[in-house]
Amino acid sequence: MPATLTLAEEILELKRLRRAVILAHHYQSSEIQELADAVGDSLELARAARNFDGDVIAFCGVWFMAETAKVLNPTRTVVVPDRDAGCSLVDSCTADQLRAWRRAHPDYAVVSYINTSVEVKAESDILCTSRNAVAIVNSIPASQPVLFLPDINLGNYVKSQTGRQNMRIWQGACIVHATFPARRLTAARLAHPEALVAAHPECPSDVLRMADFIGSTSAIIDWCVSNSAPEFIVMTESGVSHSLQKLAPHKRFHFVANENCNCSECPHMRRNTLEKLRDSLDRLEPRVELAPDLIARAALPIERMLAVK
Ligand code: 13P
Ligand code: SF4
After folding, report:
1. Which CATH number do you get for residue 185?
2. 115 CA: nearest ligand 1 atom
3. Confidence check: pLDDT of 267 > 70
4. Shortest-distance ligand to the CA of residue 172
5. 13 and 80 assigned to the same domain
6. Which residue, by CA, sits nearest to atom 6 of ligand 1?
7. Does any domain span residue 300?
8. What is the pLDDT of residues 138-179, one digit of tens each?
């Protein structure tokens, strides 16, 4: 490759040579989002992974999202810029733990958040994302008890929205959203009294109680852009500011630092860089490799979710 190419040009050239598509989650850096063919929340990216022409997906997100893309594209190559881009929710529940939980509650249906390992997905009846979790739980007959995992905050939010009492919730949490303290949101509201509050459902219930809108990353962006208010406090990862500023440059957006990193960035998502994206397209590594039987078992609950409108 000519030495004079910029990093972005190198990536675009490798993308062409590899017949690759670049999918980026909203929590990626602005530079990565600018190069992506599609930017979205986890549900939109799963759908995008199912509908594309090409041989390679460069998944700029975290590992579980790339695993989902691989399940939906078993014959294609799926790479992630950084193999260590994990997720605290994935780590909070293993397949062994889910099997034990299921054994203790054999009559329950298992609804797993997409933020789980492919092995946990394979043990689940249906998946959900933050965008469709209420609709997914509502799609299950009211008399059918449900095990919901692994996010306690999303689970409690779904329980409050569906009014469902026969739902047991795992105790996992997101290190970014679960550590947004309500007192910092209160201080932000005092500092910006005109601002409306939009929050991701992985936030704690005392934060969600103060929100004017609760939704997935893309739903938050759509709501802030379409709402007539000029100012918002956004309780999610600050990567969404890239789309917010592009789509509503005249509006003001404030982010609240959490107690984990004293910032509002996901340390896992932010492991991906342009350099690592270039190298992953060049070497086709780190690559998601999954056994065919695991793919077959995990595909079922994913497809069941995608079939729910
Ligand atoms: P979305 O489903 O909103 O993309 O969220 C994924 C995620 O990891 C949130 O922390
Ligand atoms: Fe996981 Fe939280 Fe990062 Fe989302 S923000 S990928 S839930 S650790």
Report:
1. 3.40.50.10800
2. 8
3. yes
4. 2
5. yes
6. 42
7. no
8. 999 999 999 999 999 999 999 999 999 999 999 999 999 999
Q: Which of 231, 255, 279 represents a domain boundary (last residue)?
A: 255
What is the pLDDT, as a whole number, of residue 4? Answer: 85
Q: Which of 173, 198, 216 is the last residue of a domain?
A: 173
Task: Tell whether ligand 2 has an atom less than 6 A from the beta carbon of residue 244.
Answer: no
Ligand in closest contact with the CA of 258: 2
| Binding site membership of 220 for ligand 2 (Cβ less than 6 Å) | no
pLDDT band at 52 (very low <50, low <70, confident <90, very high): confident
| Burial category of 266 from C-beta neighbours within 10 Å (exposed 0-12, middle 13-18, buried 19 and up) | buried
Pair of tokens at residue 284: 């086709």
What pTM does this model have? Answer: 0.96
Ligand 2 atom 3 nearest Cα:
266
Q: Is the dihedral of CA 118, 83, 239, 25 positive or negative?
A: negative
Whether residue 103 sits in one domain with residue 55 = no
Among 59, 127, 129, which is best to mutate for testing ligand 1, by the most ligand atoms less than 8 A from CB? 129
The HSE-up count of residue 168 (CA atoms within 13 Å, CB side) is: 14
- pLDDT tens digits for range 18-36: 999 999 999 999 999 999 9
Structural domain including 149 reads: 89-173
Ligand located closest to 62 CA: 2
Tally the residues of the chain. Answer: 309
Question: What is the pLDDT of the chain when averaged over all its residues?
Answer: 97
Place of tokens 């009294």: 193
